[in-house]
From TrEMBL:
Keywords: Magnesium, Metal-binding. This is 3'(2'),5'-bisphosphate nucleotidase CysQ. GO terms for molecular function: 3'(2'),5'-bisphosphate nucleotidase activity; metal ion binding. Mg(2+) binds at E83, D103, L105, D106, D235.
Length: 299
């Protein structure tokens, strides 16, 4: 049994983040409308980095979430790790067991491109493992919530529904969801060798993991090349919390849990997420054998 920091009630906390999340949705949907105008687009883009763009929406949401948490929960023994804050000041250090991990806008490229495949991630990690998590997908009117024990989805009007897994498929019967803007030739080669039943292309790790929890897909593979950029803690913390509490699993290819709080915040190598924790290890092993047999990736 994990106890939240003194003075924090889990039901009140979820209520507070729920309200905050729909306010975030309003901000993100507002800026998606503005991005349709090329003149507004120039003002919304805050840097010229095509590989890692930052928008005014990222900054607004980041500022609001951190401010609200700090105002509502004064003197609570936790810290907030945010992607945007690390970009401007890479000196985050904490000795606290409890750390919020925030990505105000996961899938910024898709956000700019207008695909709707973007999300807000917010997780509360305990001892470097995701515990409570929120994945907000404004374009789908979905807020995925994990309280550490179970996962559910809410619409803005309060309607709730549960995860929907289609289990007991073998690897070739599965639908893979994979990256739209962060793919590479090595991953494409692996996908081709596995010969999945179906491949869905989608931006945002949060959107991809939510698609598994919804039952639209079965598996996600993230493959980062050595020496190249990798996803970070804020990309995976909240999605991991909703997937695991729903009965799925997410590990590296050796079936080892992800480690958070490393100095670089990197989540490198090969990461596999599936909809069934019972068969997850065998799926990882099967993929590993395919990689080794075909010399696809240095393991």
């Amino acid at each position: 049994m994990i106890n939240l920091p003194s003075g924090v009630d889990i039901n009140n906390l979820i209520d507070d983040i729920r309200i905050l999340s729909w306010q975030v949705a309003d901000i993100l949907l507002y800026y998606t409308k503005l991005l349709e105008d090329s003149n507004d687009k120039k003002n919304i883009l805050k840097n010229n980095n095509e590989d890692d763009p930052v928008t005014l929406a990222d900054l607004k949401v980041n500022e609001m979430i951190i401010k609200r948490i700090n105002e509502k929960y004064k003197n609570i023994n936790w810290d907030i790790l945010s992607e945007e804050n690390v970009k401007t000041s890479n000196n985050f250090v904490t000795k606290n067991d409890w750390v919020w991990v925030l990505d105000p806008l996961d899938g910024t490229k898709d956000f700019i491109q207008g695909t709707g495949n973007y999300a807000m991630h917010l997780a509360l990690n305990f001892k470097q493992k995701p515990y409570i998590g929120f994945v907000l997908i404004p374009d789908k009117n979905q807020l995925w919530i994990s309280d550490g024990k179970k996962t559910w989805c809410e619409k803005r009007n309060g309607t709730k529904y549960k995860p929907n897994f289609s289990n007991n498929k073998n690897l070739q019967e599965m639908t893979l969801v994979t990256s739209k803007n962060h793919g590479n030739e090595t991953l494409r080669n692996l996908i081709q060798k596995i010969n999945f039943c179906k491949v869905e292309i989608m931006g945002s790790i949060g959107c991809k993991i939510a698609s598994i929890v919804r039952g639209d897909s079965d598996i996600y593979i993230c493959l980062s090349l050595p020496g190249k950029s990798s996803p970070k803690d804020w990309d995976f913390a909240a999605p991991e919390s909703i997937l695991k509490a729903a009965g799925g699993a997410i590990t590296n290819i050796d079936n080892q849990e992800l480690t958070y709080g490393l100095t670089s915040f990197q989540q490198g190598g090969i990461i596999i997420a599936t909809n069934n924790r019972k068969t997850h290890e065998s799926i990882c092993l099967e993929i590993k054998k395919i990689i080794e047999k075909n010399g696809i990736y240095p393991l």
